[in-house]
UniProtKB/TrEMBL annotation:
Family that this chain belongs to: Belongs to the 'GDSL' lipolytic enzyme family.
Gene Ontology molecular function terms on file: hydrolase activity, acting on ester bonds
Protein name per its UniProtKB record: SGNH hydrolase-type esterase domain-containing protein
InterPro entries: GDSL, GDSL_lipolytic_enzyme, SGNH_hydro_sf, SGNH_plant_lipase-like
Signal peptide: 1-24
Keywords assigned: Signal
Protein's organism: Salix brachista
């Protein structure tokens, strides 16, 4: 493989959202570079941070396909994205020049041509631990990977087996999850704490991620980007439940330690499978935005925009009034970021992506 490919993977990802945030990058040049190295599309796995509406099709209460979600989306349309607008992965697609959004694989309006530019298999409330997904009746990663196989079949029918294989081989695989494994599972339900200490559970999750990526690689993946877990203790909901105005340190510590284990596993995958990989330091980016909001054009980082901003998300946010200007807020509801925060996350991720892939 060309020695420049790791850098191109980063550049394709940098094409991600930074220009939309700062206008400082020559998009055309990045698109040409990505095209020259055959970056074909983006295939997404994970939770609500990257679910554009797959859960709309599932018998689960974990949905965001109603107002005020989607308030700043195209045509002010709620799609199932747990935000006021687009997600980070939507900006990736736009920056690569293919489409303005990454569609949900289960979207009944998905057109065959959409498959060429990438889809998301992600499911809100999912995680690396299948139990996490089962608690909310959403798609575990094992099912998301099964849908990847379906995707490959549809793609083969569309463009032929060889070209389909090439599209998957040159796609950027994005994994973004882990939050629910702690918040909806380990710190809430009795099963896993009886089986694991926090550190043992982190190891268990990291090993699940490792196996998931190995299976993706077996199915053709060669370029993988893993988004780390955010500072869980700084989410408005977590602070409210803990009765604190400041971030809950024990939750942040759990997230930080798990992220370290993610990076260890990625190093092993790089060595054993020859994968091109990147780690996105979501934790550091959000922490920086909370500590220095003015640097990012933010004003409010302690509560969400929906309702009181301290406890509402999903169903409990339904139909509530929202803040006047979401672009000044880090959080849309008591758990999920605003579109503005997703832009910031993307733009700021570039430095860590460079450090990870260009060495």
């Amino acid at each position: 493989m060309h020695p420049g490919v790791p850098m191109v993977t980063v550049l394709a990802l940098m094409a991600l959202m930074m220009p939309l945030f700062s206008g400082a990058v020559d998009i055309r040049q990045l698109r040409q570079l990505a095209a020259r190295h055959n970056v074909t599309c983006v295939l997404v796995f994970g939770d609500s941070s990257v679910d554009p509406g797959n859960n709309n099709r599932l018998p689960t209460t974990m949905k965001g396909n109603f107002p005020p979600y989607g308030k700043d989306f195209f045509d002010r349309h709620p799609t199932g994205r747990f935000s006021n607008g687009r997600l980070a992965t939507d900006f990736i697609a736009e920056a690569l020049g293919y489409t303005k959004i990454i569609p949900a694989f289960l979207d009944p309006n998905l057109k065959p041509a959409d498959l060429l530019h990438g889809v998301s298999f992600a499911s809100a409330a999912s995680g690396y631990d299948d139990l996490t997904a089962n608690l909310s009746q959403v798609l575990p990663v094992s099912k998301q990977i099964e849908y990847l196989k379906h995707y490959k079949l549809h793609l083969s029918r569309l463009v032929g087996g060889k070209k389909a294989q090439n599209i998957v081989k040159n796609a950027i695989f994005v994994l973004s999850m882990g939050t629910n494994d702690f918040l909806q599972n380990y710190f809430l339900e009795p099963t896993r704490p009886k089986q694991f200490t926090v550190e043992q559970y982190q190891n268990f999750l990291a090993s699940r991620m490792f196996q998931d990526i190995k299976e993706m690689n077996r199915l053709g993946a060669t370029r993988v980007v893993v988004v780390g877990v955010p500072p869980l203790g700084c989410m408005p909901l977590v602070k409210t439940l803990a009765g604190q105005n400041t971030c809950v340190e024990s939750y942040n510590q759990a997230a930080w330690s798990f992220n370290a284990k993610i990076k260890e596993k990625l190093a092993i995958l790089r060595k054993t499978l020859g994968l091109k990989d990147a780690y996105v330091d979501c934790y550091g980016v959000i922490q920086n935005a909370i500590n220095a909001p003015q640097k990012f054009g933010l004003v409010e980082t302690s509560k969400g925009c929906c309702g009181s901003g301290t406890i509402e998300y999903g169903d409990t946010c339904k139909g509530l009034t929202t803040c006047a200007d979401p672009s000044k807020y880090a959080f849309w509801d008591a758990v999920h970021p605003t579109e503005k925060m997703y832009r910031i996350l993307a733009g700021e991720a570039i430095e860590s992506l460079n450090e990870t892939l260009i060495d």
